[in-house]
Amino acid sequence: MSVSHWFHGEQDWIVRYNQCVKSADLCEWEDVSSVRFTLEDAPYFGQVYPLKDPNSDYIYLYGIHGGRHHGLSCLRVLSHNFLDMNEYEYLVGDNIWVKGNDGLKILKDSPYFISGPKVSEPCVFYNPYLNKYVLIHNFNGAAMYLSDNAYGPFEDKISLIPGEHKPVYGSFASKNLLDENGKVFYLTASQWEEYNIYLYKVTLK
Fold first, then answer.
1. DSSP characters for 82-103?
2. Which residues, other chains included, contact 3 with Cβ-Cβ below 8 Å and sequence gap of 6+?
3. Under DSSP, is residue 104 helix (H, G, I), strand (E, B) or coil?
4. Sign of CA dihedral 72, 77, 80, 83
């Protein structure tokens, strides 16, 4: 994301745009100009987290407004169409998908959230042990939310890192951080005061 201005407290960040980049070797990177969300057209995709769904041919993108004070939006696209935003389908209601600019305009004018109202630095992954999709985000500590579908709604809040224990942000996990078929998973979490990243181990019982 390209941030024009950071604000503290209850104000949103001004995110000019969010854009995809690609690499064949993880060393040299190039812009993918065909995949870009601008503040004017797509304010609720200022920060984006991707998921390649292991149970379908879709890639899901989860978006939030710049900052930490809005809900979580969702879109999907078939993997082979990822570079064509005209093929993107936006979730505008309960399992209601609208393709292309029409869907983006509906979402801008009447946002539909699959989690919220306040979502910060989200990540989503499929956990085979739970047979659920897991959303992790931070608001007064890190918590996870579960859903039967990649597009939510994400409910059943389970606290992972209580805010009174350690105020954190940016709690990220992925399919690559699973062990014992998902019964154990790891997540990274950042802390502002010490400005460091911690690795947490979560064991489900």
1. TT-GGG-EEEEETTEEEEHHHH
2. 13, 14, 15, 16, 66
3. helix
4. negative
Q: Which amino acid is at 170?
A: G
82's tokens: 């990822």
Tokens for 13, please give them: 């960040």
Q: For 74-96, write each residue's pLDDT tens digit.
A: 999 999 999 999 999 999 999 99
Instruction: Quote helix, strand, coil % in the chain, to nearest 5.
Output: 10, 50, 40
Q: Predicted confidence band at 50 (pLDDT cuts at 50, 70, 90)?
A: very high
Query: What single-letter amino acid sits at 36?
Result: R
Residue 161 φ/ψ, nearest 5 degrees: -130, 100
| Pairing of the two strands 155-162 and 141-147 | antiparallel
Q: Do 55 and 76 meet the contact criterion of CB atoms below 8 Å apart?
A: no
